[in-house]
Amino acid sequence: MLVPTHSPTPDEVAADPIGVDHMLSADERAVRDRVRAFVDTELRPNIAEWYENAHLPRELLPAFGELGVLGMMLSGDGLPGRSAVEYGLAAAELEAGDSGLRTVVSVQGSLAMTAIHSFGSEEQKAQYLPGMAAGHIVGCFGLTEPNAGSDPGSMTTFARRDGDDWVLSGAKRWIGLASIADIAIIWAQTDDGIRGFIVPTYAPGFTATPITAKLSMRASIQCDIELDEVRLPADAVLPEARGLRGPFTCLNSARYGIVWGAMGAARDALETARRYALERVAFERPIAAAQLTQAKLDVATGSLLALQLGRLKDQGLLLPHQISIGKLNNVRTAIRVAQSARTILGGNGITAEYSPMRHVQNLESVRTYEGTDEVHALVIGAALTGMPAFR
């Protein structure tokens, strides 16, 4: 039987409270450490200012491309081709910096790039994917509408044939990156069911307007999109995407990243509160020595769930209801951990100097997008009973 060689220090326990590091390969740890170093040097020093000013630097996209995190799980010419676990570890590190910045990577890679990679023609893949992996071409993913969020089958955006062309009309809402995107993946009803289209954002009739009155995800961009008789050539359609299987495939990829990302936010909130409690003195001793403070240092175990789902995904065995279990559990857990961490900081916890409250605000968006708590609970219930209860 193997026996631990030493008792871990408090710093080591904080970094890896349940020993996940021992379950990772050297390559997986190297990916995690590389992304963590990028977050520490490029994102963490700036995120409070970006959040306060509701600013997303456009130059982050090429930086993410150079880091190798755009379309990370996709394989092919010019694509990273990394494992699901490696992507998950990267997502956790990015969200330890900020949920909005991890969302940028997800919109580009898990949504827009996955749509083209899974359902596009060989010509479309060659035209867009290498540039998107490098961050030189920015994509967005237009599914949600003002009156069709959790029920995308009720979308009213419509694409009609006009000779060899397609003409799109409708509206989308909460579309990440749309105002800085070069192309938009737009899902629309047609006479032949729901189809996906690659829409250049410079096309006449396409308008993206940032949603500015946000109390969450302020360091990322979400937009309203208007489609006013946008004319597209015949080859703009994604040939292999028919019905809701297309967008749901992309959404499941994004939801998987959330399972890991939420644990990154939780870890950062916990570590911020721990450091503060060790330094903050009240009644002649650090508040970390108080029982009430120690009881609030909630260790999130959702990283084990994330790792299990990642191993299943790498084996091709991951099921949709398992992603829902991960998203529902880990986002709820992360919110609880971040809220508890905020209380340890007292009044200082509401300032931008410390991350927990920013994580709480961001995670309220994370729990809503890519499926609300209620939708994921129904996905799990349908898997358990065989009786869908969505209607």
Helix content: 40-55%
Strand order of the largest sheet: 2-3-7-6
**Biggest sheet details:** 4 strands, antiparallel
Order of helices and strands: HHHHHHHEEEEEEEHEEHHHHH
Overall pLDDT score: 94
Termini separation comes to 54 Å
Strand content: 5-15%
Total DSSP helices: 13
Alpha carbon gyration radius: 21 Å
Find the structural class using helix and strand composition: alpha+beta
Query: How many extended strands?
Result: 9
Low-confidence stretches: none
What best-fitting shape do the alpha-carbon axes yield? globular
What does this structure look like?
- It is a single chain.
- The strands form three sheets. The chain has a four-stranded antiparallel beta sheet with strand order 2-3-7-6, with helices on one face. A three-stranded mixed beta sheet has the order 1-4-5.
- Helices cover 48% and strands 15% of the residues.
- It contains 13 helices and nine strands.
- Strand 4 and strand 5 (193-200) form a beta hairpin.
Question: What does the secondary structure layout of this molecule look like, with pairings?
Answer:
Layout: H1 10-15, H2 26-43, H3 47-52, H4 60-67, H5 84-97, H6 99-119, H7 122-133, E1 139-142, E2 158-162, E3 165-176, E4 183-190, E5 193-200, E6 206-210, E7 222-232, H8 245-279, E8 281-282, E9 285-286, H9 291-296, H10 302-314, H11 320-344, H12 356-366, H13 373-385
Parallel strand pairs: 1-4
Antiparallel strand pairs: 2-3, 3-7, 4-5, 6-7, 8-9
Helix pairs in contact: 2-5, 5-6, 5-8, 6-7, 6-8, 8-10, 8-11, 8-12, 10-11, 11-12, 11-13
